[in-house]
Amino acid sequence: MAEIVAGVATSHVPAIGVAIDQGRTDEPYWRPLFAGFEKSRRWIADLKPDVAIVVYNDHATAFSLEIIPTFALGCATEFPPADEGWGARPVPVVKGHPELAWHIAQSLVLDEFDITIVNKMDVDHGLTVPLSLMFGQPEAWPCPVIPLAVNVVQYPPPTGNRCLNLGRALRRAVGSFGRDLRVVVFGTGGMSHQLQAQRAGLINREFDNRFLDLIANDPETAAAIPHVDYLREAGSEGIELVMWLVMRGALSPHVREVHRHYHVPASNTAVGHIILESEREASA
Ligand code: DHB
Ligand code: FE
Q1: Domains identified in the chain, total number
Q2: Residue 7: inside a domain, yes or no?
Q3: Which of 11, 242, 269 is the pocket-test mutation for ligand 1 (most atoms within 8 Å of CB)?
Q4: Whose CA is nearest to atom 2 of ligand 1?
Q5: CATH number at residue 166
């Protein structure tokens, strides 16, 4: 049986990708940020997941304002890195896992959790930066990746509770796939940041660190945070944090915290990162 063995949450700030691509990770500005991912890289190299499901948001790259799916699952065989205005990042093409993705699509829809099926999609920094943070700069990504895009760009985004429940449905879906696969789920985005208007540059360390505690130990309380609280406390782009709840819902109710990192700033953003392992006996 396939099994979701662990979850990784991390911010996906595009400037982090630029720093990696341009070989600037040792610069004084960036060193403390990347130092917090060294253990993570060793951890995932040891874990050797068979598949990664990456929950991320498209930043009006693949989806324009013409079509805005709330949840979109990538079922294609590959997903090229997107040109976000200055050429595509020099990272490998993301190889999908159509067999598992189609199984997940069927399971979710029959579980009454309708999602959009995507057969062609370029993936932007929301997906590629977390892969770079965790896997470095390989010739090819070490495992197939299933993108799961969540709309947090155009109001109304899904609630945190809906995202937690999507994660639980994802766990049921993966658990009913009849091949032995060890799957890791990424939740990306956040933490507090606001890129626009009077409060641009907003950072809220207290909110972020409480959220890190809740995502590990009390996801139901995190799932009850209303949109307006994300906006008020974590800035207009802090809503990206609802995607961490999909990751958390996909794990067992009790988890083991492997690693945590919090760093301010990267570009305009407070960077948060946490790794959680599922407890086998307590699976949903
Ligand atoms: C920044 C952060 C993001 O999450 C994003 O999607 C774009 C920019 C930033 O801090 O610059
Ligand atoms: Fe973003």
Answers
A1: 1
A2: yes
A3: 269
A4: 13
A5: 3.40.830.10
Catalytic residue numbers read 125, 193
Q: Ligand 1 mean position to 101 CA, how many Å?
A: 28
Q: How far apart are CA 67 and CA 221, in angstroms?
A: 32
What CA–CA distance (Å, rounded) separates 264 from 32?
9
Report if residue 10 sits inside a domain: yes
- Residues sharing a CB contact under 8 Å with residue 96, sequence separation 6 or more, in sequence order: 74, 75, 76, 77, 78, 79, 144, 145, 146, 147
Q: Does residue 284 fall inside a structural domain?
A: no
Q: Does any ligand 1 atom lie closer than 6 A to the CB of residue 269?
A: yes
Distance from the alpha carbon of residue 193 to the mean position of ligand 2, in angstroms: 9
Q: Which ligand is nearest to the CA of 195?
A: 1
pTM of the shown model: 0.98
- Structural domain for 124, as ranges: 3-264
pLDDT tens for the 284 residues of the chain, in order: 999 999 999 999 999 999 999 999 999 999 999 999 999 999 999 999 999 999 999 999 999 999 999 999 999 999 999 999 999 999 999 999 999 999 999 999 999 999 999 999 999 999 999 999 999 999 999 999 999 999 999 999 999 999 999 999 999 999 999 999 999 999 999 999 999 999 999 999 999 999 999 999 999 999 999 999 999 999 999 999 999 999 999 999 999 999 999 999 999 999 999 999 999 754 44
